[in-house]
Amino acid sequence: MKPYTDPLKAYKETNIRTASQGKLIVMLYEEAIRQLDLAIQELERKTRKLDLVHNAIVKAQDIVTELMVSLDFEKGGDIARNLLGLYLFFNRQLLEANVRKDSTMLKDVRKLLLELKDAWAQVAHVQVEEPRSGINIAG
């Protein structure tokens, strides 16, 4: 095994590998929100770098897609189906916001992602640690 030359990268990778499923979901939401913050910030600058905006929105879309494919409809039932509907809505909004370069649309999605992240953070906080096998979760 090759030793890490970047201690911060090693810490982040260890944090991800040892996180519970709930914590992983919270981390995904946090990163999607961070990417939207970058896009919004860049859109609101006078000298906008649209390539940075585009890349940040695409990263947020990728994260939402990861959340979507992680849903377990057998265990999650209606909650998983409702989350799927929200994730599909988020991706449509992010696509449209990217085409229009519309920070208001991004802020709307960001607000909803933040609410979901806060809910998942509460669940992850009280979640009993169990051995995890991947990130296939109920919602």
Q: Secondary structure elements and their pairing?
A:
Elements: H1 7-17, H2 21-43, H3 50-69, H4 73-100, H5 103-126
Helix pairs in contact: 2-3, 2-5, 3-4, 4-5
Fold and architecture overview:
The protein has one domain: Four Helix Bundle (Hemerythrin (Met), subunit A) (Up-down Bundle), CATH 1.20.120.340. The protein is 76% helix and 0% strand. It is built from five helices and no strands. It has helices at residues 7-17, 21-43, 50-69, 73-100, 103-126. The N and C termini lie far apart (34 Å). The model has no long low-confidence stretch (mean pLDDT 85).
Fill in the keyword field for this structure.
Four Helix Bundle (Hemerythrin (Met), subunit A), 76% helix, globular, 139 residues, mainly alpha
Quick structural summary:
The protein has 139 residues and is mainly α. Helix content is 76%, strand content 0%.
Distance between the termini: 34 Å
- Helix content range: over 70%
Structurally, the number of domains stands at: 1
- What would you report as the Rg, rounded to the nearest angstrom? 16 Å
Mean pLDDT: 85
Note the main sheet.
Answer: none
Classified by CATH, the class is: Mainly Alpha
Number of helices: 5
What fraction of the residues are assigned to beta strands by DSSP? under 5%
CATH topology: Four Helix Bundle (Hemerythrin (Met), subunit A)
The dominant shape is globular
Strand and helix order: HHHHH
**Category from helices, strands and their pairing:** mainly alpha
Unreliable stretches: none
CATH superfamily name? Answer: Flagellar protein FliS
Tell me the CATH architecture: Up-down Bundle
- Count the beta strands: 0
